[in-house]
Write a structure and sequence with these properties.
InterPro entries: DHC. Residues 116-127 have a biased composition (Polar residues). Residues 17-39, 108-142 are annotated as: Disordered. One of its GO terms (molecular function) is dynein intermediate chain binding. With 753 residues, this protein is mostly helical. Among the domains are: 302-439 and 477-539, no CATH class; 555-753. The chain has helices at residues 2-12, 16-21, 42-52, 119-131, 137-153, 176-193, 199-211, 223-231, 235-238, 244-270, 274-279, 302-314, 320-332, 341-346, 353-385, 403-436, 476-494, 500-504, 523-538, 541-546, 554-557, 560-570, 575-593, 609-652, 659-697, 702-752; strands spanning 459-466, 469-473, 598-601, 604-607. The protein has a 4-stranded mixed sheet with strand order 2-1-4-3. β3 (598-601) and β4 form a beta hairpin. α7 packs across α10, α13 runs parallel beside α16 (403-436) and α15 runs parallel beside α17. It is elongated.
């Protein structure tokens, strides 16, 4: 009765949730009356559920996935980290870090046979238990739990098997059969320690795996996991509409596997606590399938030792200095290149052929100087500071052989040559990749569209006139020589790098002290060149095809246009014909002037400035030829008209000496005023049309301007001259008539006498 009161009193001190987890000491709730039609309350259902399956995790806690066993502990979030599951760390608290306690240690001797423990272990483990009497009741309960856990997991005696223990061989390696026997024995020993789970254990274990932990207690899977998985799957499969249902199923399966694996890990970890197993009524859980790894048999022992000794003396690849050289290379010279293609692409493109060659030479020379003045001296300094790695290869006296030290530095030279060779190969690859940007070529569908070639070009090629054709400057042959020479420039600047022993031992002479590198005769180099040449050939199509744009201007190149103009001038044409001809030439010139000055074509960029200017000048010359012809015609015609006006003016201004001259002048004046002046006016009309034409197209010199001014002043002047001459001649005629009448009268008077 006293025990019953004590147990009831102990349960009364616990909270309600503690009652749920220890339902085996409490009678179950009576069933609801049959008359109750309402559903049981949530509390009733929870209590009934916990009566059969005590909770594994706390329903509410500061942290996610907090075990139920931590319910009666008062821990902050920081105190709950790393001690929720670990038996040895569950009593650690941050507030106790500054305090120093005598650690309660348990010395467990490691006995291979597992036959039992010596008495010293029991003695050492009993003293800390006695010291724990000073702790609080809660600490006392925790310490009891720890001791019980250790007694259950570590100090439980092992069952002896009838099979005798195996004796491991000494220096000789075990055969696969022996390794398998050892693993089987260890598995049997572990199996003998654990009890086989009952059906109830399996049923309750499966329940906690599926219902013991809520999904929201587990951190969701990172999105990057699905991204990494998708990267391993072909895009064709991911985007296939037929596989979309399968994709949904697989994604859901992956998510379920993620949560189920984490739930199983948490449940297994909690069940490592014997107190939790007892509370959850799970005595044993299924064992995992053992993983067995067997080492394959290898030939031993003397052969290995002799090979190891030979390698130590002759295989210098594993010497620590090689690692130092490798670390130095990757730390300081990993990004070194003979041609810095990234800098070229980031610079101003396209480059003139000479500019391209200057950049290649500059980059190669800088890389060569870096290797010569920085890499080799740094390696030599490294050898000087790390003599302990190689000085033992040197002969101890003048009579010892130098073979070991020579082999060592030969290996060093080979290693550094490989590094230099790697630098050259990567530089060649970078240069090839610089041209491989344009591997698709520059062929295009006519008409040419500039926006299709938006990638920066490398080399500028000028278009020039070499009558009667258009040529490339430089030619494609010269361009290929320039590109090939850029590859050879890398090979050239990689040569002449001395070996490190030439710096360590300047007195060395008599054999090759230069690091080997890539040779221009190697197939590797020729493959790079052939690969680049294919790209170069693909980029010759566009420039040659673009010349078709200038086909319509071939007459300007082969002087056919000049011959046509000469034939045109030999014929008689009106001013309108000249205007049409000049406008046609002007239109062609404007078309040429509006053509592309630079023509992007993948690898190359055509500079058509000189070509367009030359064609424009040829068209302009034709235009000026026509205009000059009209200027000359205008000058000659105007001079002729002015001369005629001047002749008429001079003639009509003469004073007749006799009647015959008077009659001639009167007739000349009449003819000039009635006929000649009208003809001259028609010529003046033509001259005005020519002048209007010349005002639009020509820059007349001062003499022609003065001549035109004089020409158009003549009509008014000639009228005044005509008027004056007419008056003068009339006066002369009247005077002549009076003289004639007078003479007639005198003659008549003589007759009458």
């Amino acid at each position: 009765m006293g025990d019953m009161d004590c147990s009831c009193q102990k349960i009364a001190r616990s909270d309600s949730i503690h009652h749920m987890s220890h339902s085996q000491g409490q009678p179950e709730l009576p069933p609801l009356p049959a008359s109750a039609n309402e559903e049981p309350s949530g509390l009733y259902q929870t209590i009934m559920s916990h009566s059969f399956y005590p909770p594994l995790m706390q329903r509410t806690s500061w942290t996610l996935a907090a075990p139920f066993k931590e319910q009666h502990h008062h821990r902050g979030p920081s105190d709950s980290i790393a001690n929720n599951y670990s038996l040895m760390a569950q009593d650690l608290k941050l507030k106790d870090l500054l305090k120093v306690y005598q650690p309660a240690t348990i010395n467990v001797p490691r006995d291979r046979t597992g036959q039992g423990l010596p008495s010293s272990a029991n003695k050492s483990s009993s003293e800390p238990i006695r010291k724990k009497t000073k702790f609080s009741s809660r600490n006392k309960e925790n310490s009891t739990r720890i001791n019980l856990a250790f007694k259950t997991s570590i100090f439980s005696p092992m069952k002896k098997e009838g099979k005798p223990s195996l004796t491991f061989p000494g220096s000789r390696p075990m055969s696969p059969e022996q390794q398998l026997d050892v693993m089987l024995q260890q598995e049997m020993e572990m199996e003998s320690k654990e009890k086989k789970p009952s059906e109830s254990d399996l049923e309750r274990y499966n329940y906690y795996l599926t219902n013991g932990i809520r999904k929201d207690m587990i951190a969701p899977e990172e999105g990057e996991v699905m991204v990494r998985i998708s990267n391993l799957i072909s895009n064709t499969l991911l985007t296939s509409p037929f596989l979309e249902p399968l994709m949904v199923v697989l994604v859901q399966e992956k998510e379920n596997d993620y949560y189920s694996s984490l739930m199983k890990s948490i449940v297994d970890y909690i069940l490592m606590d014997p107190m939790e197993r007892k509370r959850l009524f799970i005595e044993s859980i299924p064992r995992l399938f053992p993983q067995r790894v067997i080492r394959a048999p290898v030939p031993w022992h003397s052969v290995y030792r002799s090979a190891k000794k030979w390698n130590e003396e002759h295989l210098h690849t594993v010497n620590p200095m090689m690692l130092r050289l490798k670390e130095l290379w990757f730390a300081e010279f990993r990004d070194l290149r003979f041609v810095r293609t990234a800098e070229i692409l980031a610079g101003k493109l396209p480059l003139q052929p000479q500019e391209y060659w200057d950049v290649i030479q500059k980059h190669c020379l800088e890389a060569h100087q870096t290797l010569l003045n920085k890499w080799i001296p740094t390696c030599a300094q490294l050898f000087t500071s790390r003599k302990e790695y190689w000085v033992h290869f040197a002969p101890k006296s003048n009579y010892d052989s130098c073979r070991n030290i020579e082999e060592y530095f030969a290996s060093v030279a080979s290693f550094m040559s490989l590094q230099l060779r790697e630098l050259v190969i990567k530089s060649l690859e970078d240069l090839v990749s610089l041209f491989m940007i344009h591997e698709d070529g520059n062929d295009f569908k006519e008409p040419y569209q500039e926006m299709k070639f938006f990638i920066p070009q490398l080399i500028m090629i000028k278009l020039e006139v070499s009558e009667p054709i258009i040529v490339f400057n430089p030619s494609f042959d010269v361009c290929w020589e320039l590109i090939r020479d850029s590859f050879l420039e890398i090979i050239k600047n990689s040569n002449g790098i001395p070996k490190v022993e030439s710096v360590l031992f300047p007195e060395l002479k008599g054999y090759n002290l230069i690091l080997e590198t890539v040779n221009a005769e190697e197939k590797l180099f020729s493959d790079f060149l052939s690969q680049t040449f294919k790209v170069f050939q693909n980029n010759q199509v566009g420039p040659r095809k673009y010349l078709n744009v200038y086909k319509m201007y071939d007459d300007l190149l082969d002087n056919t246009a000049e011959q046509n103009i000469a034939a045109f001038l030999k014929e008689n044409h009106d001013i309108d014909d000249f205007v049409m001809k000049i406008n046609a030439i002007k239109k062609r010139r404007n078309e040429i002037a509006s053509m592309h000055i630079t023509v992007p074509l993948a690898m190359f960029c055509l500079d058509a400035t000189a070509l367009n200017y030359d064609l424009c000048e040829r068209a302009q010359n034709l235009k000026e030829h026509l205009i000059q012809f009209q200027v000359d015609v205008n000058r000659d015609t105007n001079t002729s008209i002015c001369n005629q006006y001047s002749h008429i003016a001079d003639k009509v201004s003469e004073v007749p000496a006799n009647t015959k001259e008077l009659v001639f002048l009167i007739e000349f004046l009449k003819k000039s005023s009635d006929v000649t002046v009208f003809k001259l006016r028609r010529q003046l009309r033509d001259a005005s049309e020519r002048l209007e034409f010349l005002m639009d197209y020509a820059d007349l010199p001062h003499e022609d301007i003065k001549l035109n001014s004089t020409l158009f002043l003549w009509p008014d002047q000639i009228e005044d001259i005509f008027e004056n001459s007419r008056n003068l001649l009339l006066h002369k005629r009247d005077q002549a008539e009076m003289d004639l009448i007078k003479r007639y009268r005198e003659s008549l008077g003589l007759f009458w006498k």
